[in-house]
Design goal:
mainly beta, 1 helix, 45% strand, nine-stranded antiparallel β-sheet, 396 residues
Length: 396
């Protein structure tokens, strides 16, 4: 973990996409990181489905971050299938319309700019995951939580597993990713322990596979300490202060008595952190169902984008489907689907996919928090373990 707080897929892993011009983004405006003044402020904690609107239009509002480390807000109009995005960091806006997909990818939003297609998953009034450039072409994946539901601090407190979403190298390699543990204490303090998925030319964090972490909590020897509080003027907003670096960061949280998640913006070029509450799951049978996701995968420019669905079926066998690079549905089995021993709502599986004249072996990790899902994936060919994709979505 870096001193900027935390240093952050399924191979075609889990993301609404802005179709307007995203050029000319200003990535030096770090002062906007903690700015609660939002020209598209759709916050209204007393009005779940009617955001800043007197005409009974069915809208939803979300706030979160993009992969570059920008603060982003979203307004989704369900009546006319349109969206508006405002990037607070670059001061860029984007808007467009979406269609709702059917059949295998039922419920996922598809957006087209004429040349490319992008995707989003909305768990209405809870979360939005998207793989479009939200006011910045470097925001290949974005995540927001509802700003219309004011979480209680008591519901946000607890233990979390996180994945850092970033283009940064980890341990000196672009093929490693950062993940880790967070405890948000009810007294308004927090501690963090960070891990890397592999070794490299540098040592930012110790190498640790999620399946090998048997006793995650309480966190031993935390790397980061700090304080957190809900903003009194913006109920879903988290104000975070980091003891080691002295930095003040902005996040947004969603919580109810059964589930909690938050996104923390790490500032321009540093990406964001997405954390899901850890809770007890007796087996994968407790989670059976279809979980739609969007993803961004590690092509040459880390810009490959897709959508898919996890089919969890403990009796008939679990599988996944996603759009391949040609826009066709590709399906794979979840071989050796296994629960991580220390993190009972985190799972991993192996898969083999063949296409374009090549066969690729992969390992995927995903965290399920009731209706929400988060993951990352790695290729395992030639005795290597190389990052391929980020994913996020929900059970619709």
């Amino acid at each position: 973990m870096k001193n900027v707080f935390f240093g952050l897929v399924l191979a075609a892993s889990f993301a609404l996409v802005a179709c307007s011009d995203d050029s000319g983004s200003n990535t030096n405006n770090a002062g906007n990181t903690n700015n609660s003044n939002n020209s598209n402020n759709t916050n209204n904690s007393n009005n779940t489905n009617n955001t800043n609107n007197s005409n009974n239009v069915d809208k939803a509002a979300y706030a979160g971050a993009g992969a570059h480390g920008d603060l982003v807000t979203f307004s989704i109009n369900h009546d006319d299938s349109s969206y508006v995005v405002h990037n607070e960091t670059t001061s860029k806006d984007a808007s467009g319309t979406y269609t709702v997909m059917s059949e295998t990818l039922s419920g996922i939003y598809e957006i087209s700019d004429g040349a490319s297609k992008f995707y989003a998953v909305e768990l209405n009034d809870k979360i939005l995951a998207a793989n479009f450039p939200t006011g910045n072409p470097d925001n290949t994946i974005s995540f927001g939580v509802s700003t219309e539901v004011a979480p209680k601090a008591s519901d946000l407190a607890g233990d979390y597993v996180y994945i850092a979403i970033s283009n940064d190298e980890v341990n000196g390699s672009k093929y490693n990713r950062e993940w880790g543990l967070i405890t948000m204490e009810s007294a308004g303090t927090f501690v963090v322990k960070s891990y890397a998925t592999g070794v490299g030319d540098a040592t930012d964090y110790p190498e640790m596979a999620p399946e090998n972490l048997t006793t995650p909590f309480p966190i031993a020897s935390p790397d980061i300490h700090g304080t957190w509080a809900l903003d009194s003027n913006d109920p879903a907003k988290l104000n975070v202060s980091v003891t080691e670096s002295g930095e003040n960061l902005t996040g947004y949280g969603y919580a109810d008595p059964t589930q909690a998640a938050f996104v923390l913006d790490l500032g321009p070029t540093n990406g964001f952190l997405l954390a899901f509450h850890v809770y007890d799951v007796s087996s994968v049978a407790d989670l059976d169902g279809d979980y739609q996701f969007i993803n961004v995968w590690n092509d040459q420019n880390m810009t490959g984008r897709s959508a898919g669905v996890l089919h969890l079926d403990s009796s008939a066998g679990s599988s996944f489907s996603h759009l391949d690079v040609d826009g066709n549905i590709s399906t794979g089995s979840m071989d050796n689907l296994t629960q991580c021993p220390g993190l009972s709502n985190m799972f991993y599986f192996d898969s083999t996919e063949t296409g374009h004249g090549a066969t690729v072996h992969e390992r995927f990790y995903f965290v399920i928090m009731n209706e929400m899902v988060l993951g990352f994936g790695f290729t395992t060919d030639n005795d290597e373990f190389l990052f391929t994709s980020y994913s996020a979505g929900a059970k619709l």
